[in-house]
């Protein structure tokens, strides 16, 4: 993949949002107050339409994006704020993002997935039907997708990178299109899992995954609290490596789950003084003088040696002290689902050897 294409996709992860709905328009708006609090407690994925029906709205800022309409039990709000009407069954599923595909597979629904985006096909071919249809998430063949007659299509904000709703014709054809916007926090990720579980009749599985995910996060936090203050480090998280054509570093600032991951392992984000996804010049990156550089750039050959050989970087502490790493679980940290936990453990162990060795990765193969 060319760096320009990679940067476009990463940018779209945060900036794009598809205003898609499902099949039948909802007659009423969701008014139930079923907010999921941002606390260490796990998300209650077992919530039902009956319980939300009894809820009373007292604070609109606390409304849950997954609230179920009290007048139409199969009408809910998707993760991008659109009212959708769920089908009676979800035997034929289309997933247009790798993070959603992996969640569905973990639910045991691999055989129900009849079409995926090309990235999902590349990543999970061994866990999907051999003859599964593949679509470009940016420019899908909507006629073929509609002909498949799926019960539900899960889309992602990445698909609107070019500024248009590429699934509009699918929605207009009466197919349920549920959009999952780009997650900005671990709490968002848990809500995504809960939402997908509710849509597919896998609420119990979603609750179990969220409990397991939160337990792992709690273990990481507890281990990080044992790190002495004098050993704390700053991390520059690097998604793209500077080249002559693109002399910038793409990284994560505040308001991203990657920033949350860095903080949770007991480190400081070198780009934490900036918001959202950040494009840094080499000069600015060098000036941050990080203690550790964590790269997920799997497209640059021998990226670690490339980074340490860049002119002007020789005096950066991370380079001087051989603290530059390529995550072997780069895909996991870039997919907003429970498997980010595995990549966090790798990042934590690279940054603070010995402090996180007692933690078992629940997703290790």
Describe the structure.
- The protein contains 14 helices and 13 strands.
- By secondary structure, the chain is of the alpha/beta class.
- The protein folds into two domains: 3-214, Rossmann fold; 226-351, Nitrogenase molybdenum iron protein domain (Rossmann fold, 3-Layer(aba) Sandwich).
- The strands form four sheets. A five-stranded parallel beta sheet has the order 5-4-3-6-7.
- Strand 6, helix 6 (168-172) and strand 7 (176-180) form a beta-alpha-beta unit.
- Helix 3 (98-106) crosses helix 4 (118-124).
- It starts with a helix and ends in a 14-residue tail after the last helix.
- Mean pLDDT is 83; it is low at 1-72.
Key structural traits:
13 strands, Rossmann fold, five-stranded parallel β-sheet, 365 residues, alpha/beta, 14 helices, disordered N terminus, four-stranded parallel β-sheet
């Amino acid at each position: 993949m060319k760096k320009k294409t990679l940067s476009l996709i990463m940018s779209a992860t945060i900036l794009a949002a598809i205003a898609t709905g499902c099949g039948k328009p909802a007659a009423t708006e969701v008014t139930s107050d079923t907010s999921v609090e941002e606390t260490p407690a796990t998300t209650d994925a077992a919530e039902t339409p009956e319980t939300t029906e009894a809820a009373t709205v007292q604070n609109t800022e606390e409304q849950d994006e997954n609230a179920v309409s009290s007048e139409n039990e199969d009408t809910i709000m998707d993760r991008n704020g659109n009212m959708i009407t769920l089908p009676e069954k979800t035997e034929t599923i289309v997933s247009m993002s790798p993070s959603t595909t992996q969640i569905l597979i973990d639910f045991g629904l691999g055989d129900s997935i009849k079409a995926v985006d090309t990235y999902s096909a590349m990543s999970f071919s061994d866990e999907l039907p051999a003859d599964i249809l593949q679509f470009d998430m940016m420019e899908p063949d909507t006629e073929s997708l509609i002909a498949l007659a799926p019960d539900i299509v899960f889309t992602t904000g990445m698909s609107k990178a070019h500024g248009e709703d590429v699934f509009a014709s699918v929605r207009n054809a009466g197919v349920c299109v549920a959009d999952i916007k780009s997650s900005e926090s671990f709490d968002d990720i848990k809500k995504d899992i809960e939402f997908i579980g509710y849509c597919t009749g896998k609420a119990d599985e979603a609750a179990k995954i969220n409990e397991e995910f939160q337990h792992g996060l709690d273990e990481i936090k507890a281990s990080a609290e044992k790190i002495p203050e004098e050993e704390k480090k700053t991390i520059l998280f690097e998604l793209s490596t500077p080249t002559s054509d693109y002399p910038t570093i793409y990284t994560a600032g505040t308001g991203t789950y990657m920033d949350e991951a860095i903080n949770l392992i007991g480190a400081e984000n070198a780009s934490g003084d900036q918001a959202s996804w950040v494009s840094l010049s080499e000069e600015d990156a060098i000036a941050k003088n990080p203690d550790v550089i964590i790269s997920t750039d799997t497209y640059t050959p021998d990226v670690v040696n490339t980074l340490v050989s860049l002119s002007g970087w020789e005096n950066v502490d991370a380079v001087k002290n051989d603290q530059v790493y390529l995550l072997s679980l780069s895909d996991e940290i870039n997919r907003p689902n429970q498997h980010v936990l595995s990549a966090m453990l790798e990042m934590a162990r690279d940054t603070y050897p010995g402090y996180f060795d007692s933690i078992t990765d629940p997703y290790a193969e």
